[in-house]
Each structure stands twice: as structure tokens, then as C-alpha cells.
Amino acid sequence: MADNRYTVPYLPAGSTFGPAEIDAVTRVLQSGDKLSCGPERDAFEAEFAAYTGARHALTLTNCTIALEFATYLLNLQPGDEVIAATQTYQANVTPLLGTPARVRFCDVDPETLNISPDSFASLITDRTRALYLVHHGGTPADMDPIMKIASESSISVVEDCAHALGACYHGRSPGTLGHFGCWSFQSYKNISTLGEGGMLTVADDRHAEVIRRIRAIEPDADFERRTEPPFPGLLPPADDVERHAKNAYDEDCTVMRHPGTNSTLSEPAAAVGRVQLRRLGALVARRREIADRLDSGLGSVAGIRVQPRRPGIDSGHHLYTFFLDATAGIDRDLFIARLDSLGIQIQLRYFPVHLLPEWRHRGHHLGECPIAERIWFREQVNLPIYPQMNDWQVDFMIETVHKTIRELSR
After folding, report:
1. What's the DSSP call for residue 308?
2. Helix (H, G, I), strand (E, B) or coil at 277
């Protein structure tokens, strides 16, 4: 529910739902079919793969699980290093806390808040195994130079695409530019599968098979055939009764790598995802209209810097970000507090991850990523953006920003 204190609330819903989504859930519930691991999930995966151009698309319960599975597939060992984004949601790097790898946080491009290719290159050592990046706010990172640098050093690239559904990088979809694409359908995102949901896109057939297995509570393990029954005097039953014995009578486990977990998307959620995917073009188009209107209204304001659009790169416009010019002498915290008090609900996205307590515990500190720190603490402002927003709300935000700049510039 929107907070009625605000003229422009920060809605906890980044998409809209209508009769088509309700009909999809009703159809699944009335079908009598199973509600897990069924045809809706398979169809959603196929349609998502077709939309993005991915070889494999695998539904999961959320994007964090996708990141955890990508991390598992990397098989990071003691002595390995990973380079990671700092201007991101904590889930992007949370799986790395469970590995022995050393994480080196990468500073950002001051316009896009994405990883800077130059900063990335400067952090590479002969122990670097992977790069974790996010397409911040829906604008794809500069992937061609990043992938060239990664390829030269045999570095695997994990793309956090939680913001980037509907974006385009020189004719290609995020999530297919690196080695792993991790997607979110959480309620704030550009489409949602009933509040939670995720997808992992991969090109490697072996990786896809491993994920299909472990998301279905099957272990990633090695087995060998037995020559004798394992249970003396107890032979496999000859009837067709399901006993969940799996391969207990026929094989022994010789190597265990992952125990498996239950993390696939339900049939109703997948059915809604299929409808939302078909509506994605219109949903992102509305976000683009809002972003264009804000850019037009704010781009000429003294003391404000809007994010530039780059040729060949189309954003998913998941977030709307602008920056206060540091030379304008306006206190950012005072500025956003004033906007909030005047009716625009403000949420800043995202606090530099390397400064969170769990990462400071691992030796990270203020000054490690000076550009990201300067921008987040002094310059960055996020305004609400979602397709349900009315034009008059957009105009209200423009007028309020103008008014606040004038007041605080005196």
C-alpha cells in the first residue's frame, strides 16, 4: 500500500497486474495439474531464453539463489580473488561471504555507477578468477571492453541483471554478454512473478545441467554402479509403487559437491511471468517516457547533473538517478530530506557494499572506492520511477526539485 503522506510514494511494486495475470493464475489453479515443475515453468524458461537470446534460462525462487548457484559453479578456492561491484544491492556479493576467495571491490564510472573498465583492469592479478558486476539502474555496463579485459585474463563474468530486464547493449541483451546472467522478478523489478522469482541464464550446457539437478533437490555428485545389492537380503521391489528410493539400490556416491536444494519457480508464478514478459515492452516504454520527462525537466537546472544516454545502449530504467554538482554547495542529505518532506518519498540505491559491517569485518574500509563513496555520500539522488506513475506526479517531482534547488542555493 502506498504511503498516503506522499504525493509521489516509492511504491513497492515496479510492475502492474491486470486481468491477464489473474486469468493466468486462475487457469493454472483450475487445471488440476501439478503446481510445481510443470509446463508453465518450462514455457516461461523457453520464452525468456528466446527474449534474451540465452542458450539456457533456468527459473529459480529469486535472484539471490541465481547468484549463489553462479558462485557455486565458479568453485572458488583459497587464494582465489574476485573483483566485485560496490554500488549494488548486498545480495550481489553476499554469496562471496561463504567462499574462501578474497574480494576486491571495484570503483564506478561516475556517470553510470557501473563498474569502470579501467578500475576493473587495475585490480586484476594472476589470482583473479571472476568479476561480479551489476547493470546499475537498468543501464548496461560497458561490456565490450570489460569482456575483452576478462577474456585476456581468463576471468569469468557474473552479470547481476536484476535491474536490466528490457535493456539492450548494442543489439544484445544483458545476461548473455558474460558467462552467467542473474535475474530478479521481485516485486520492485520491471516484471514480477508474484513478488519473488529469479532466473539464471547460461551458455554452458554442463552448467545448465548441474543447475537443473541441484534446484530439484538432487546432489551434484559422482556415483558408481554397484555389482552387489547394498542391503543384504533386501532386493529392489518388483512393483510400481513410488518409494523415493532413487538410485539407492544401484549406485554408491563417490564424490559429493553440492547437496541440492528446492529452488524452482512455482507454476502460478511462472504463468504470471509469461504474461509479464509479453507486457515488458509497454512497461519499459512507460519507464522510458518518465525518465525522458525527468531528464528534460531537470537537465538544464544549475547544480544538477543527469545521467547521459550513450549510443547503442538502451536502459531498462529501473531506477532514476541524478547528481548534485559538488561545486553548487548544496548539502545532499539536506536536499533529499527536503524533497521527502515536500511529498517525494526518497530511497537511495545503493549504499557502497564494501562499507557494510560484514565486509568491514573482512578488512574493507572507507577510501577503498573513492568515486563511489563521494557520489553516494555527497551527490547521488534517486527519484521514484514506476509505470503506474502519472504525468502530473512526474511534473510535481520536477517542480519540487526546482523549488528545493532555489531554496538551498540562497
Report:
1. P
2. helix
Cα 223 to chain centroid distance, Å, stands at 35
Domain ranges of the chain: 19-215+262-270, 224-257, 279-408
SS3 42: helix
Q: Which long-range contacts (CB under 8 A, 24 or more apart) does 25-30 make?
A: 25/194, 25/268, 25/271, 25/272, 27/271, 28/267, 28/268, 28/271, 29/268
Which string of DSSP letters, residue by residue, matches 350-407? --BGGGSHHHHTTT--TTSSHHHHHIIIIIEEEE---TT--HHHHHHHHHHHHHHHHH
Residue 200 identity = L
Amino acid at 220: D
Task: Give the mean pLDDT per block of 10 residues along the chain (410 residues).
Answer: 85 96 98 95 98 98 98 98 97 97 98 97 98 98 98 98 98 98 98 97 98 97 93 89 93 97 97 98 98 97 95 98 89 97 97 98 98 97 98 98 92
Separation CA 139–CA 116 (nearest Å): 13
Secondary-structure class of domain 279-408 per CATH: alpha beta
Give the ranges where 126-266 is alpha helix by DSSP (H): 143-152, 205-214
Q: What is the DSSP string of 304-334?
A: EEEPPP-TTEE----SEEEEE-GGG---HHH
* Three cell numbers, residue 318: 529501473
Measured from the Cβ of residue 33, the count of other Cβ atoms closer than 10 Å reads 12
The DSSP letter of residue 344 is: B
How far is 357 from 52, CA to CA, in rounded Å? 36
pLDDT at position 63 is 98
CA-wise closest residue to 219 among 187, 192, 247, 258 = 258
Q: Which CATH class is domain 19-215+262-270?
A: alpha beta
